[in-house]
């Protein structure tokens, strides 16, 4: 599942960079030449990708503003690489991609109380809205989750996440505490994260 998700992220990146006129790289070739640790799922990834392209041709009604770009909060305390930022109907949206072998139609509900999505929402309101004010005068529209099914039936869904207001505040407060704890670790142990005391609430590597 991780390999398929990584392959689809690669293809989508080049696809939307092409839509923005910033790349001529073929998404399928990009998957074909991906690192061997994920390229072993190329055949299945190509099937799913072609299904996504057909779906996107019917559902994409936006202007691509940026793809896989890292944004930083105004206070410099956290960053996030956003999969896709676009303008639609006068608003700017941040879109995240997930893949699942489960229920595509309801998958977005699992992410509406996700710290990741709360952070993306904060960046949208405080960074994307002013940054893209010329292209999206109506401000930030919200966080969009696009889900690509990797099961036997290839299907996709795109939903605006309904992130509870109270959860947004709680997530931001939690991140602030974690950043404070990290600053304290750096002060006490230097800038090598492997020397820090193990924190079960923080990621040790890209997988968890």
| Total count of helical runs of at least 4 residues | 6
Parts with pLDDT < 50 across at least 5 consecutive residues: 204-208
End-to-end distance = 15 Å
Give the CA-based shape: globular
Average pLDDT taken over every residue: 91
Beta-strand fraction estimate: 15-25%
How do the strands line up in the largest sheet? 1-2-3-4-5
Major sheet details: 5 strands, mixed
Radius of gyration: 18 Å
Query: Structural class of the helix and strand makeup?
Result: alpha+beta
Order of helices and strands: HHHHEEEHEEH
Helix content: 40-55%
| Count of strand segments | 5
Please, could you describe this protein's structure?
There is one protein chain. With 208 residues, this protein is an alpha+beta fold. Helix content is 42%, strand content 22%. The protein has helices at 2-19, 27-32, 36-39, 42-59, 115-131, 165-189, and strands at residues 63-72, 79-88, 91-100, 140-149, 156-160. Strands 1-2-3-4-5 form a five-stranded mixed β-sheet, sandwiched between helices. α1 packs across α4 and α5 (115-131) crosses α6 (165-189). It is globular. The protein starts with a helix and ends in a 19-residue tail after the last helix.
